[in-house]
Write a structure and sequence with these properties.
Arc Repressor Mutant, subunit A, 2 domains, three-stranded antiparallel sheet, 5 helices, about 20% helix
């Protein structure tokens, strides 16, 4: 018989209309365990809602769902957990080290772009720079990150700068400090055809 703490941090939604309900999976709870839920509504203003689900409320359930409207939390399926103050919650589960912060699940779409090193070749096709990310190349060349990404993938020369860009493939096993390398040699190492 333990008290398990679940912390959920909500992000500010930009969509209008009905909000989707949030779900907390409780499959991991052992029989007889209580669930202490802390829902952080506004992290900047330290606004959080805390409540305790006794074991009899959780019996036979695989999850609990709730909606948030403004600063109010509404539990679905007729659940009525016991609201708690911060001090009461900390007394029940004083060890905050093991609190897992669960963000809202992403619904489809890709995550942010991976940070990859980018090789920059000058107008003659010689290696001029090795940068840490697309952001660094964009800052140096005054091009948009998406445009540089597209140039890396299509192997075309930039019409604005005359430079060529390639993502660095770590597995190629060549000396990255060899500035005599040309874009055609690099494409050959990658087993790619130049246009």
């Amino acid at each position: 018989m333990a008290v398990v703490r679940e912390r959920i941090i909500l992000r500010k939604g930009r969509r209008s209309g009905d909000k989707m309900p949030h779900r907390i999976d409780i499959k991991e709870l052992a029989e007889g365990d209580s669930l202490l839920v802390e829902i952080v509504i506004d992290k900047a203003n330290d606004l959080a809602y805390r409540c305790l689900f006794e074991p009899e409320l959780l019996a036979g359930r695989r999850g609990v769902t709730f909606r948030v409207s403004g600063e109010q939390v509404y539990w679905l399926s007729g659940l009525q957990p016991k609201p708690l103050l911060k001090q009461q919650a900390d007394q029940l589960v004083p060890d905050v080290e093991h609190v897992e912060e669960v963000g809202p699940k992403r619904r489809g779409g890709k995550s942010g772009p991976r940070e990859r090193k980018v090789l920059v070749f000058d107008e003659e096709g010689k290696l001029e720079a090795v940068t840490r990310s697309l952001k660094d190349v964009a800052r140096l060349s005054n091009l948009r990150e998406k445009a540089i990404d597209r140039l890396c993938k299509t192997k075309r020369v930039s019409s604005e700068t005359g430079y060529s860009f390639r993502y660095w493939w770590k597995v190629l096993g060549f000396d990255i400090t060899d500035f005599t390398l040309t874009v055609s040699q690099y494409d050959e190492l990658c087993k790619r055809k130049s246009e």
